[in-house]
Design goal:
329 residues, Serine Threonine Protein Phosphatase 5, Tetratricopeptide repeat, single chain, 2 strands
Length: 329
């Protein structure tokens, strides 16, 4: 995931790694009704039809059409049924986020929260979910302190209802990432570890949510130079990613790069080099030979080459990395 698609992969500012953090987001727009909201189904049917049309437009990447359809759905809700207003706003905001229009999505989320607090209650699960979505939107704008306050409130609601639920883990994950991005590593790590523990217990296998937590915790450890702690987390994430039929190949390459960098830092060069070679080839294939991620792999790989006495090849890789960085915006 990356910031543009609200999987919000925030880059670590380490020269030698391209580690990313992943935020838990509400996927898609097919919310229909937020949990617990009651409405008259006869009135909801035309609204639901618009929601379905909007979801279809999103699936076909017709985001401008989806925005128009869901705006019509919101107008219908405002005229016919107050119980439909909050999910209408939330779904429209998600479409705006998918277009990278975070500043436009933010006031919609805030309005949805205000509506839900009246229609339901201030500590309703739907309030927690909408606050969570708002936090992702704020993080995407780089407003980490604002997002922290929102995530804390969402987490408070979820912990009160079910402290060991996957929803609580989502809030813990995002709050932990947000704190890290503010330099609050001591606060961030236990939250990320707790999110991982909840997900491991709930999902029982290394699926996408567990891998998300593994990757986030590994990147935090790596950024502190704790390579021995980071490596097994990256390795476990990498092994699991290879079993996912829809794994993002760019993220798989990133994990290979980071695992190789950890192995290099521990002088396990024979393990690291095949990973660097594969990560470099994949990044060049997927992103192009002049992408900054390629430069990051070249630079990390050059450290291994220097350590193993191949100074000429190391210098070539380093020079190529510098040229890519110089040409990148």
């Amino acid at each position: 995931m990356n910031a543009d698609d609200c999987g919000s992969a925030a880059r670590v500012t380490e020269e030698s790694t391209s580690g990313r953090f992943f935020l838990s987001v509400l996927a898609g727009i097919a919310i229909v009704l937020l949990a617990g909201i009651q409405t008259v189904m006869a009135q909801a049917e035309p609204w639901q039809k618009l929601q379905d049309e909007g979801a279809k437009a999103v699936a076909e990447n017709r985001l401008a059409d989806a925005e128009k359809i869901l705006t019509d759905a919101l107008k219908y809700a405002e005229a016919k049924d107050a119980a439909l207003i909050a999910p209408s706003i939330n779904n429209l905001a998600l479409v705006l986020e998918n277009q990278g229009r975070y500043a436009d999505a933010e006031p919609l989320y805030r309005r949805a929260v205000a509506v839900l607090e009246v229609v339901e209650s201030p500590d309703h699960p739907s309030v927690a979910q909408t606050l969570h979505n708002l936090g992702v939107c704020l993080d995407a704008q780089g407003r980490f302190a604002d997002a922290e306050a929102v995530y804390r409130r969402s987490l408070g609601i979820r912990e009160k209802k079910s402290p060991d639920s996957p929803f609580a883990a989502d809030s813990l994950n995002n709050l932990g990432v947000d704190l890290y991005l503010q330099g609050k590593n001591v606060e961030a790590e236990p939250l990320l570890r707790r999110a991982l523990a909840i997900r491991e217990n709930f999902f029982k296998s290394d699926g996408p949510f567990v891998v998300q937590s593994l990757s986030n915790l590994a990147t935090l450890c790596y950024s502190q130079g704790r390579y021995a702690d980071a490596e097994p987390l990256y390795r476990r994430a990498y092994v699991a990613m290879q079993t996912f039929p829809d794994a993002d190949p760019i993220e798989v390459a990133t994990t290979m790069n980071n695992l190789a960098t950890c192995s290099t830092a521990q002088k396990r060069y024979s393990e690291a080099e095949p990973l660097f070679q594969k990560a470099l080839a994949e990044r060049e294939r997927l992103l192009g030979k002049n992408h900054r991620d390629v430069a990051e792999t070249l630079r990390a790989y050059s450290a291994l080459l220097t350590a193993t006495g191949r100074s000429q090849q190391a210098a070539e890789f380093e020079e190529r990395a510098k040229a890519i960085r110089a040409a990148s915006p």
